[in-house]
Amino acid sequence: MAVIGAARDGRAAVAVAGLLLGALYAAGPAFTGRLRGRARERAWLVVVTLLWTVLSALSPLFTWLAFPILLAALYVLPLWAAMYGVAVLTCVSAAAASWHAGGVSAALVAGPAAQAVAATVMWAGPVTGSRSRSRVRGRPARPPGV
User: What stretches pass through the bilayer (predicted)?
Assistant: First the structure.
């Protein structure tokens, strides 16, 4: 939707950059996983996050695409870094939305905050469920963010 909106507004460069963001995000599994190494997946996350940040500054439609990046941060980074990253991405998203709107409103702050809460809950559910099942089986659980 953001790419279509940018193209409709006659901002071809922003639309192409949006397609690049989508392609980079979709390529994430090629950079993630135990066999690929943490450095590659963290570099992927940095590139995707930086491109999203630039696009959020250029078009208000991209500010709402923070959700998949929040999920990626939660899965790629260690827990402490993921929580910091979620907080920073939420603030950047709210600031960009407010800047494009010409002022701060409750909805422009609550929207990114709700995204952050939803992403964290979606991430925490499988992790805590996995940890509970591991304890029942007598095996150590995989630490979150590792």
Answer: 12-31, 43-67, 73-97, 104-125
